[in-house]
Amino acid sequence: MSGAASGSGLFQSYGNPRFFCEIMNAIGPEDPTVALVRDRLRAFDEDELRRRASAAEAELYNLGITFTVYSERDSIDRILPFDLIPRILTAAEWDVVERGVVQRVTAINQFLWDIYHDQKILKDGVLPRDLVLGNSNFRPEMMGLDVPLGVYVHVNGTDIVRDDQGRFLVLEDNARTPSGVSYVIENRHMMLRVLPDLVAGLRIRGVDEYGVRLQQAMAAMAPEHVPDPQVVLLSPGIYNAAYFEHVFLAREMGVPLVEGRDLVVEDARVYMRTIAGLRPVHAIYRRLNDDFLDPDVFRPDSQLGVRGLVDAWRRGNVAIANAVGTGVADDKAIYAYMPRIIKYYLDQDPILDNVQTNICREADGLQYTLDNLETLVVKPVGESGGYGLIIGPHASKTELDAFRSKLKADPANYISQPVINLSTAPTLCEDGVQARHVDLRPFAITGQSTWVLPGGLSRVALKKGSLVVNSSQGGGSKDTWVLQS
């Protein structure tokens, strides 16, 4: 591992980071483009960078690029804080990430096909039967349904971290309705507008293909007899926290944004209400949870879904992405078995390793977790967004004791992992440029094949010392640059 001096210009307050720094450290010879970006950043005046950062935040808010935070009393629209110092991945680094994500998505789709058909992996004892069939996200309604192209997860977000040696590790999978890709694209647009002098002349892979790629994948799964399929994006509506992203993606895809009330099923076919009358719909990219999708099949009180939609899907008259029941694959307990799942279906070792995981539903895993709670991160298997977890080294004795009781009461709801010394990236903070922990969520689209958006969402923990990067917990984001080879 090589390093670079940091304490000059914009980096005069940066010092020597305690953890692996993605712009100051390199595995082997340093990429000359990374060195060039660092030199350009050093030349910036901090006050000037802050002025540009303020202009960027104002523009993000004016453009409506927000997410909604709900509390017991009200809801607040906030921008996702955007840090102007980019996160850089070399071509070689990206190659590892890309191949690892494609491998993982391929295995996940084969796993989902199997558990909703022959269940060979359960019969062979690779996974505990009750872990799958008793999972709250397992949908018996999906048994025997032959989804187009054998693809259940058309859009996947894989959360990846780097440890103190710079190795990429998978933290969790997001196979239901992964969010955040709108920030990837808008962050790039903002960077080009606000810091053109930093970007000038650099060979960075673009991110603007995403909407076209997603529309093509949706069209590819439409009924075969339809020459020009109508794709729509189904949203729960304006009160959803990610509604901005729904609007953004519909625009990028060039498809209508609809809510459940805009669709109707007649004779097992789906139609969209328009001012010119009913118009056939052949493929639906849904940003609506399974439970609310069809009141005839799931929650009968749902006002957000479309009655008869699943029947139309079963008959092959419409396609739905992501498929119902994909939540089994991103359950945190199933995650612990992903290396075995990859080996079982693909006969390959994982390109991207898991973080070591203890399964608390198993006696050994529970005992280890209870004995080492103060050194571990413990997560509920069904939560996301950084909710419900505890980071042992950062918790008080009272918090640890309370969590220990919860763990004993419902061990099957938890997994534990060691605290990873996440890599850091330079971030503009109140007290100058400081090292802050980052993760990465690459987005993969699967149709006839799997394509990975070059870069992904780099989230940054803005609070000093924090390892929680989620926007709902005070995190921000960076533009992610993948350098061309």
Automatic annotation (TrEMBL):
SUPFAM superfamilies: Glutathione synthetase ATP-binding domain-like (SSF56059). Residues 86-461 form the Circularly permuted ATP-grasp type domain. Pfam families: CP_ATPgrasp_2. InterPro entries: ATP-dep_Glu-Cys_Ligase-2 (IPR051680), CP_ATPgrasp_2 (IPR025841), UCP005522 (IPR016450). This is Circularly permuted type 2 ATP-grasp protein. It comes from Endosaccharibacter trunci.
